[in-house]
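TL;DR need structure tokens for one chain.
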Amino acid sequence: MSEIQFTRMEALRLKNKLKLAKKGHKVLKKKMDVLVMTLFEILKKLKGRQEEVLKGIEEAEKALKLASLQYTEAELLLYAKYNAIEYELEAEERNIMGVKIPKFKFTFKERPPYYPFLRSMKLDKVIKIYRSLLYSLIELAEIQVSLKVLLKDLKKTRRRVNALDYVIIPRIEEDIKKILQKLDEMERENFIKLKVLKDAAQRQNAR
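>> reply
TL;DR here they are.
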């Protein structure tokens, strides 16, 4: 830690530093507020998507179980192979107060189910449910990754705000206070010295 220089120039430098620190604190506080608000919005989405995915899994298991009563495992695997989804997944980003949040763009080729053998309403339902479930899982993944990124940056931002609140700003203010007190003390000492010299000079002249 560097020693304090008790000069007016140093006091001015620290005042400018304090001004920048308070400005930075204001920006970081605003960023933290926006991140917290965004976090709560995403948490609401997370709950809805989790419920949607769990419901989709439950429906998919029921539909598959009913289909398995009519078809063998080999036939079901064959139907799955013929009805595999052709899709594209692109990872984009959106910027929230300097924090890059992932956004997945998921598109798949819409096509009617294909059956190498007899058409089945039970299989129609299985295919439809699994396609919908895949879409929900992609959205859930986007939300979970976004939460992870937000929480990490929010934690870092909170540390910086706390450092400014409880360490950096109080330390600068204390250093400015010490310098100003020292300068006042030096001015009083100089005033007293000058007064003593003046009185001595007056006494000398009076002789």
